[in-house]
Design a protein that fits this description.
The chain has two helices and 17 strands. The protein is globular.
């Protein structure tokens, strides 16, 4: 009888230890983003999934620390195309091309216009609020990038096949948020939902995102006008 009590006590202690370790390690949240209503882009899925505590925490301990990030301009493209940063972060925009660029974002999220700047120079932007910033070059219409600013440390950039994983999320109630390229805001808002996390693994399943018509995703220059055709004789626009 005494041995049974010791065994029961040992099992209880072991279970408590397992629960404590599980809580400390957090929940691994997995899922997949899938497009429908259009042709999948050749570069694959471009999406971000993040979790926001459903109840406002008593302190800012869960807020991610601001970071210093870099969005390069190279070969008439932004690298990386998709960047996720914490609220309060700064992003450098170095020009690594042998010609001028003019980086701007005037639509959503952080609005800015860095003006015209030459090869080998850089500009910096402070992203001080949550949101999605669509970034372009006023000279080269083929250049585009997206900066997603979040106030939660629990986020993931989906892989090209749409799969994502967010590790170490403390158990509790969260709002699931999604951003996906070429999708309308109302489409993405409809995907938001509450998730109750517990245990060590949690799947949110497949998040099906409807793509917008291609005509709705085209952009103008910073003056709201169509881009002018490149002029080979103008060193601002083309490679010397």
């Amino acid at each position: 009888m005494k041995g049974n009590r010791k065994l029961a006590l040992a099992l209880a202690v072991g279970l408590c230890g397992f629960v404590a370790r599980s809580a400390a390690q957090g929940v691994n949240v997995t899922g997949r983003v899938a497009y429908y209503g259009g042709t999948n882009p050749p570069g694959g899925i471009s999406a971000v999934v993040w979790l926001v505590p459903a109840a406002q925490p008593a302190s800012d301990t869960l807020a991610p620390k601001p970071m210093d990030a870099v969005l390069r301009q190279k070969n008439k493209a932004f690298e990386p195309h998709l960047l996720v940063v914490a609220k309060g972060s700064t992003v450098q925009f170095p020009n690594l091309d042998p010609w001028f660029h003019n980086v701007f974002s005037l639509f959503n999220g952080k609005k800015f216009d860095l003006g015209l700047y030459e090869a080998g120079t850089s500009r910096t932007v402070h992203f001080d609020r949550e949101g999605v910033s669509y970034i372009f070059c006023n000279i080269h219409p083929e250049m585009s990038a997206v900066v997603v600013v979040v106030s939660s440390p629990y986020y993931s950039i989906a892989a090209k096949n749409g799969e994502f994983s967010i590790a170490g999320v403390p158990p509790g109630r969260y709002m699931l948020r999604v951003w996906a390229e070429n999708s309308l805001p109302e489409t993405l808002e409809a995907l938001s939902r509450e998730e109750e996390l517990n245990g060590t693994m949690h799947s949110v399943g497949t998040l099906r995102v409807r793509q917008a018509d291609s005509g709705t995703t085209q952009h103008k220059n910073k003056y709201g006008q169509d881009y002018e055709p490149p002029s080979p004789s103008n060193p601002l626009y083309t490679q010397p």
